[in-house]
Amino acid sequence: MSKNKTIPVYLFTGFLESGKTTFIQDTMGDKRFCRGERTLLLVCEEGEEEYEPDNFVDKKYTYVKVLEQESELTAESLAEALKESKAERVVVEYNGMWMLDTLYNAMPENWVIYQEFMFADAGSFLTYNDNMRSFVYDKLKSADLCVFNRFKDSYDKMEFHKIVRGATRSADIAYEFSDDRIEYDDIKDPLPFDIEAPIVEIGEQDYAEWYRDINEDPEKYDGKTVRFVGRALQRKKVPHGSFLIGRHIMTCCVDDISFAPFEVQWEHAEDVPNDTWIKLTAEIQYKFSMAYGEKGPVLKYVDSESCNPPEQEVATFY
Prior knowledge:
Elements: E1 7-14, H1 20-28, E2 39-43, E3 62-66, H2 75-85, E4 89-93, H3 100-106, E5 111-121, H4 122-131, H5 133-140, E6 145-151, H6 157-167, E7 172-177, E8 182-184, E9 200-201, H7 207-216, E10 225-233, E11 242-250, E12 258-265, E13 276-289, E14 294-306, E15 315-316
Parallel strand pairs: 1-4, 1-5, 2-3, 2-4, 5-6, 6-7, 9-10, 11-15, 12-14
Antiparallel strand pairs: 7-8, 10-11, 10-13, 11-12, 13-14
């Protein structure tokens, strides 16, 4: 096998007893998924359910490797497992208590995540989110599909929906009931501001949502005029005639708080006092920015006024 051949990786994440093993077992027994490809099945978490390789469609072409410790997940061990198995693809049952960066950093260059599924027991998910938010966010942020098993009619879908959307807006969400019903999430997420208004007013509580939206789809904001409260900063690395404005955003927990700024272009940029809060009105231009080193939303100064910091200085998604 060529070392440069792309190896598709099918990644299944979630916590113990979330339904990962059962789903993978069913997948490996499905002729639509198994058509004679050699598969490396990496098992990073063993729960009550056990695999039954005899029921795999391609059992003679499936190589199972169990990793009991996170320290075993290294580039060398993955490369060796692939060499031994001569696999053409990889299926991973990931440990819910291991951060995904451990896997990403260990993956050989030609391994590519094709699909990522996050599974959760609906009965314990909210508790996990309350007590281990960083681990929950880690498994949600890049998922293509989030499946909530053992869902009940008495549960409020909006509670689950908000948590998922706080981490990702692109993942599909499925609710699986004990009677084998599956319902897909169809809750709409209108933006909390009017993007068609002559001046798009970004509320103090909406900065995180707006920052994510404009970076995910910057072209739809091109030419729009926006007004919001932010912290203005003067920095030597910012091009002459520009300053930065932004707010700190907490994505999941205190440890991941980071400053999320925009470049503001204005011929009198140096007149803006450093490290002050202002209410800025600016026109958004989607173009190359020396401050970003790439194309992005650049703000063309229109007007500003000094103001007090927001009541909650760190912006959040929920």
